[in-house]
Amino acid sequence: MSGKERGVALVTGASSGIGLATARALRRNGYQVFGTSRKPMADTSDGVTMLVCDVTDDRSVQSVVEDVVIRAGRIDLLVNNAGIGLLGGAEESSAVQAKALFDVNVFGVVRLTNAVLPIMRRQRKGRIINMSSILGLIPAPFNALYASTKHAIEGYSESLDHEVRTQGIRVVLVEPGVTRTSFEENLTRADQPLPIYDTIRADAEKLMREIVETGDAPEIVADMLVKAANAASPKRRYTAGKMAGQVRFIRRFLPESFVDKNLRKFNRLPA
């Protein structure tokens, strides 16, 4: 591929936020970009072709992958970005709600990856970028189930990369920090709230709103993802934004007791 024609990219969850910024950044960088959303929407003004895909549905996933191949002939880059949030104490969510969260955030990634791998294997070339989070590195009070999905993506991605590397395929992670996206858009609340958590849960939501307002722009994450997409020898992980880099350093190199103490302080929890 020339510098102006880098290949064909498929970006899930591209209707807004990080996904939309990523799709646009890849398009500017020379990719032919297909984005997905759960509901029909018009192609973007800057050349991103939008397709409908429900990542929780096997047929929908297979259909969108086949559609891209019919239109473009190949898929060089898959960006698994689609995801939803969940705010509440761990015990405040039913098993049904937990399964629904994992169905999008984890099994949605598995579905898209499984659908794209045979194509990339035939090409002897491909890259899969999975959107993780700093919450895939650290505990997250009142985001326990969401953090669990990101921890799962971390282990899945690193393991898969070792399995497919000799086939010309690489799997890498992008780990954003707190990003300025629509707070309410993909956030659900626990379906079995308990009075004992009412006050502290409200404080956790207030804190989340505050840090989102001062978080990184989605374009910072998008630029890091483009770097990960184009690297000749990609790293396993790419942190996006100052906070993400700090969290990764703290988690890797500082004592667990220090991490625990400062995590509670940051979340305004009693020592």
List key phrases describing it.
single chain, 271 residues, two-stranded parallel sheet, alpha/beta, Rossmann fold
Provide a concise account of the structure shown.
It contains 9 helices and 9 strands. It has 271 residues and is of the alpha/beta class. The strands form 2 sheets. It has a 7-stranded parallel sheet, with helices on both faces. It has a two-stranded parallel ribbon with strand order 5-8.
Structural summary, described in words:
The protein has a seven-stranded parallel β-sheet with strand order 3-2-1-4-6-7-9, sandwiched between helices. It has a two-stranded parallel ribbon with strand order 5-8. Helix 1 links the parallel strand 1 and strand 2. Helix 3 packs parallel to helix 5. The model has no long low-confidence stretch (mean pLDDT 94). The radius of gyration is 19 Å and the shape is globular. The chain is 47% helix and 16% strand. It has one domain: Rossmann fold (3-Layer(aba) Sandwich). With 271 residues, the chain is an alpha/beta fold.
